[in-house]
Amino acid sequence: MRHARLPIVVVGSGVAGLATALAAAPAPVRLLCRAHDGSGSASALAQGGIAAAMDPADDPAAHAADTLLAGAHHNDVAMVQWLTREAPGVVAWLQAQGVRFDCDADGRLQLGREGGHGAARIVHAGGDASGAALVMALRARAQAAPHVQWRGGVEVDALLLRGGCVAGVRTLDACGRQAEIEAAAVVLATGGIGALFARTSNPPGADGVGLALGLAAGAMPRDLEFVQFHPTALDVAGQCLPLVTEALRGAGARLLDAGGQRLMAGLHPLGDLAPRDVVARRVWQAQREGTRVWLDASGLAIDWAASFPTVLAACLAHGIDPRRAAMPVTPAAHFHMGGLAVDADGRTSVPGLYAVGEVACNGVHGANRLASNSLLEAVACGRRLGGVLAGLGAHRSEHAASRWIERGAGLQAEPLAALRELLWQAAGPVREASRLRDAWRVCAAMADAGWQARLAKSLLRAARLRRRSLGAHCREDHGCPV
What are 374-383's pLDDT values in tens digits? Predict the structure, then answer.
């Protein structure tokens, strides 16, 4: 008897999910996302661009060396070498999808420089609106692709486990209606965990929901303790803060203390362009000493409307004109290097379950992500995973025992806000044993109340077990260079 081919279910509409869905052709794909129009991903907010060795004086080996140095050599070396070799091809593929990268008057790609890079190798689209440009182009392609069926306004709250393999998902819409979708494979492309912290550059949807679901299904985690804190989010009221892109420091902006002195002077050979963990800890330390930190770009000859329209608009919306005055900045949870452990093709330890993008950990970022490697990884690994899924078999056994693995209910607003503050204080840019222990105990007591507490408990456990400082994981009780 001939069976219809089951679809590949991709959960998430950021760059990683979109690239996976497009590359899976001609296999049928169901693309599921929380927002009806696919908005709200961290990808769309990304101000950095794509890191790629495009200059004749640059090469993938140098890009790889910078990636390994930023990652404290905790990276998977083979994955780093593969990714940096793929990078120029990723840029070309994105151009073919309709992404218009910024070029000079002669039509050559403009290459910017960001923290941790030894060369100018960042391609941008629309200045600091690169993420939005990528999402817009890839979304248009996915919505026009005959093999992709888009469904927004739903959340995946359970995975179907059949015979030890993930074989489908259960969705929930805003009206509480449930639907079940059988699948040849399920891909989690749900983003990171920044929204579990009291201060973050991520959107509210980056709350670790896919990570929590994968862990509930028994998928192995990897490096959960490694959370990158961007050193320069706009220091204004609220949880989800506007990002002030690192490219501004690449263009000459300087970090200053309350007295107008250079904050990074003498602390690192790269100064204001030191790796993000170094800069974030210095800003954190200054705040703990009672001083506010400022980023001053007011004296620079910058075409703000062309190069930094996102930063300009965000600042003006909060009554700050960066063309004339310094901007108050703060560290903010920005990127999760850890996640569901996957191999080079995106396979988790649970058959039938795949992960890609920030929810996954293939080791490429190590203990600290190099600037502008995340969109690169999302596209490159999404294309690679899509190619693998395109050749999957059409049908699974219907006779094996089945059960639903549920993520479970979430915390109510007040305890969730308390959890975010707890993680910010205990697992922020600088950590210490007793704070981690006490926070873990609080989360353990809350674990039955919501999945966010269980996920936070897992992160805190990983942070407690790694007793030495490494990359973005700074233990001030074990040699962290605060």
Answer: 999 999 999 9
